[in-house]
Amino acid sequence: MSDGYKIPQDAIRRVTFTNETWYSAAVPSSAGSDFEWTLGLDSPAGGTYGEVTLSWRRFASDRRETWRLEAFGDGLPQMLAAGLLDLLAGNGNADAAEMKVLLAAAGWQDRTERKRPGAPEPASWLRDLVKRHVPAEQQAPLLAAVDSIAEDSPAL
What is the 3-state secondary structure (H, E, C) of 105-146? Predict the structure, then answer.
């Protein structure tokens, strides 16, 4: 179903789970979307050969999530060549969790930026704060609490 379009051999099939990014609170999703994913064919030299967005929605009349595809410029022919539309068409009833598995199996790499570049890891930051501002004899229980919380919460 590629209609003669060829993707460059060096293209990296990339998916970004926008709702899982460190900057997700600052990026509004499309009206009515529960969350969005951006799929692109990235060039190792930078930039993309094409991108599309999958918006996931849950309608009141439907119990399952439904996806909507939006193409940007040359994104549609590139995604045709990459086989994405065949994957979507063959799995129209797949929910978001199922689609993540299908994309990974088809070679789409999760390149979601979940941690802010250059930002200190929160548990490390808390440990440093305790070590700088709490008397040495009182640090042990606080450091143990930070470690315990960090194990239970990947965000910390």
Answer: HCCCEECCCCCCCCCCCHHHHHHHHHHHHCCHHHHHHHHHHH
- Number of domains comprising the chain: 2
116 is a domain residue: no
How many residues would you count in the chain? 156
| Sequence-ordered alpha helix ranges (H) in 1-156 | 75-82, 84-89, 96-105, 122-133, 136-152
- Please provide the average confidence, as pLDDT, over all residues in the chain: 80
DSSP class of residue 28 equals P
Residues 102 and 132 in one domain: no
Predicted local confidence at residue 29, as pLDDT: 63
Range of the domain at 138: 122-152
The DSSP output letter for 99 is H
